[in-house]
Amino acid sequence: MDQLNAAREAIQDFTANNESFEPLIKEEILAAVAQWKYIDPQYSIIDTCYLTLMNSLFLDKEIQKLIEKEPEMKLLLTIRLLKHLLALHQRISQLGFTAETAFIKQLRLMADQDFYLFLSEKHHRLRAKLRSLFGDQEYLCSSYKQKIKQQKRKITSSHKKMKQAEIAQQEEIKDLQKRIARANSALQDLEKPKTGLKILGKLDLKTGKWIQDNRPKEQEEKAQLQSLLTDLKEKLKDKNAPLKHQQIQDDIQIAKHKIAQLKQRFCDLLESFLMKKKRAEENRLAQEEVNRCNRELKQMLLSLKETQEQLNAIGLELPLHQLWGYGKGFFLDRGFHLLERYNQLIEQNKQLQEVVNLLGRHREQKKEFEEVTIQKEEQRGTLVLQDGRTEVVGIQRSNDLHSLLSSELALLSTTETENLFYQKFAEKQLTSFQYQAEGYCTETHFYEERLLLPKESPKGPFILAVDTSGSMRGAPEEIAKLLAFAMSKIGLQDQRPVYLISFSVQIECLEISQFARDLPRLVSFLQKSFHGGTDVAPALKAAIKQLEKDNFQKADVLLISDGDFAGLNARDLAEVKAMQAQGTQFNSLIVTRGYHTHGSSYPQLDFCDHIWSCRNDLSEILPLLQENLGKK
């Protein structure tokens, strides 16, 4: 039971562990191991590397058969599985891949030009690091280098167009400036005063005066020059404005954005390579853990079966789940050969076997009864008359006009279907309700009945007080040890607690309830030599104290001695009587070397319910045991 309790505590620790799986994952893991069935990865939130480990146990035929035979093994196997899951989780958590992650981050933060140089193998150290972390990626680097190079060409071409446009603008500005200068010069020439011969105009012959010429052509030219000059200045003003090159700028930004995208895409590919590398490593670790788990389980199960066979050799048949955690070697170095020798002696001594069986069955015969209320049922029938209409039980074909369905009556509503109604009536084919005919209608009635039934109770425990004084040396010592071992074996076999008290001048107490813990202690007891005086009172006090515990309240006390000790005082005797009043029996088995008589020779044991004695031969007390305890 300690193993099962420890397993339950381990599950609680797994649930409370906040450093392992997420709470939702832990819930699904525990739900999966509770069912112990294959989990389809498509329908589970548990990572596949952990499912690989879990399914390897769920699908193991040997483990499935073992769980079917011993359901308690599932809880113990669950703890083993959780242990390996936590170990795998820890190993996976340590797969940081920090160097790869830092390298990808460095590339993402790198300037576009530096990244292009990296692809062009200008950064030899970084390229070497790429090869060491991600393997040969020359094709990938070359491919992305060409893609970035195309975008860089577009940028270069756009810058060239901008430069050409700026040069053309400067040429136009120079041309305009020249034209403005010529226009200004021509305008100045028109405005300069004339020197030399002066043209006075035409002479009026009648008056003899000169007629002034307004020179309209000159004025017109001046106006044209001024208009031209204004236009040229406006054009010059426009040309002096900086060029926007919006379309070219947009093309450049698009190309730069594509270069940035290519860099990020390259890093994303490295991320995907890293994820694949990590997944491959996780799968490798998972497979290693699967192999380790299977290997450990196979070795443990083999060791448990060897231990089981070894225990069978001493007549102790225990299920594997009670042997969990203890291999064959656990007993080999603890004097296990002594148990084999004692078991052989018991098998050779048929009288001893029958004595032990009678003593072991004694408590089983004390049956208790309890009142149980059970529910019974009774079928009651009710007569149904033929002419009465009771419950509708179906549909039938007939010519009973009182039971027609409304759909049949509807045939009379028109002259076209009326003849059909009469035809079905004549042939008894009208659809009508079917009522229950004459007979019995059964009903179920429930009632309660109280019975006095035997109460199922677990087999009772034993308390053995063994005299280990010097007077018991020899054959009595051998018989006492054989009985102690045989009764302890029954307790271990049937999971019945055994409390062993050895007494001489002092007492030693040993509770035997868990074979793995207590069997070596039993061996230690059997290896001791008997010596010293005898005082039975402390042993009986220890037995009474043990009887007050919950798991020993239904125990009987068997005293094994040669009877060479003083009687109890009044106080100790009163305590024994009080326990006997509660149903506890105190029995004595006296083993002597010489002549003996049953009961009357041992007045110090008058408090005992039964006193049996023998001279080194248990066959002498078999008739008395059969008479007192009853033989099955």
UniProtKB/TrEMBL annotation:
Q: Which residues form a coiled coil?
A: 159-314
Q: Which ranges carry the VWFA domain?
A: 459-630
One GO cellular-component annotation of the UniProt record comes to: cytosol
Q: Is Cell membrane included in the keywords of this UniProt record?
A: no
Q: Name one Pfam family in it.
A: VWA_2
Sorted keywords for this record are: Coiled coil
PANTHER family xrefs: PROTEIN VIAA (PTHR36846)
Tell me what this protein is called.
Answer: Uncharacterized protein containing a von Willebrand factor type A (VWA) domain
What's the source species for this entry? Saprospira grandis DSM 2844
